[in-house]
Amino acid sequence: MSELMASLAALAGFVVGALAVMVVRQSVGQRQVMTPTDDVEPDALPQGVASVLAVLPSSAVVLDKGDRVLRASSAARVFGLVKGDHLMAAELLAMARQVRRDGEIRESEIEVAGHKFGQESTNFAVRVAPLGSYGQVLVLAEDQTEHRRVEAVRRDFVANVSHELKTPVGALSLLAETIQDAADDPEAVTRFAGRMQHEAARLTYLVQDLITLSRIQGAEPIPTPGPVPIDEVVHEAIDRCNTTAAAKDITLVAGGVEGLQIWGDDELLVTALRNLIDNAVAYSPEHTRVVVSARAAGAHTESVEISVSDQGIGIPESAQERIFERFFRVDAARSRATGGTGLGLAIVKHVAAAHNGAVTVWSKEGSGSTFTLRMPAFGGMAVAAPGTTTIPLEAAQ
């Protein structure tokens, strides 16, 4: 926040300086051409001031000595700070009057009622400075709502990461002490060593997912995109999940249309699809199957859809809007028991966004779930390779 206020102060300093220069030049020009009978209009803005205010990205308002709005930027009116020729925020009006009395520049943060439907309030970093010699005051207000939201997300993320790291690290420390105390009991050592391996693997998965998430959530473009064959992505993701699925006697099935392509990063897509399949396996009972299929979608087949369907426990409707949040778990105990990090679906969401796509979910408790990745097709049309057709569902080898 200190950096933001410093930036706002620098901006305000520049604006006030520029306006001051204009006022001085205007005054000099007026003295050169005025006759003794000329009347000065103290409420008029110097020439060029309106042009400066018009290009400012922040909300800018100029008040006269009677608190009437002489000029307001479009942003100030959009945010509801100004209506007609009145400044609506009481806190800003009080600051303007103090600045007019003592001539000192003031900075503060204020909160005003939200200007959008459903928005409770808007946060502003403000700076108020004297302008000219007729009691005029310049008010600059920078919208901080999104900045505050991002800061809150960052704090929550740090807190969640700390908590998630603390659990396996604490478990490893406790298990190490237990093994040391049970050095004369080979059976106990073997059992606790297995638990240590489990916790170490969980810590490794968490670190890997954090690295992957930090790589893709910054809204940076994919470094080396290229045409990605969906068939290869599906089979590679299934291959990486076969061992886990076999342990529960769950059959992984591939099907749909062959030869589809999108433009992007194959490794990121494999990671996203593997996370969806891993989730499907973790939340499905034994002796069931998970189906992965691809198809052309859209009115003109301009998109490719990859869906992962399971016969699992399903997701409550109340939780479906939050399942793509980082560290959110529908069943925290079950997720930790299966080694889940709580980041898999967040990674899927960001991978889809990085490919100009989206991920959606359909689910019903007791009937399973279907997650669908939808992304633009390579070349703008999801055309299958020559000689290929829709193939029946078949068990992946």
From TrEMBL:
The keyword Nucleotide-binding does not apply. Keywords: Kinase, Phosphoprotein, Transferase, Two-component regulatory system. Its main location: membrane. It is found in: Cell membrane. Pfam families: HATPase_c, HisKA. Its EC number is 2.7.13.3. It comes from the Bacteria. It is an enzyme of class 2 (transferase). Residues 160-379 form the Histidine kinase domain. GO terms for molecular function: protein histidine kinase activity. PROSITE patterns: HIS_KIN (PS50109). It catalyses: ATP + protein L-histidine = ADP + protein N-phospho-L-histidine. InterPro entries: BphY/WalK/GraS-like, HATPase_C_sf, HATPase_dom, His_kinase_dom, HisK_dim/P_dom, HisK_dim/P_sf, Sig_transdc_His_kin-like_C. This is Sensor-like histidine kinase SenX3. It comes from Streptosporangium lutulentum.
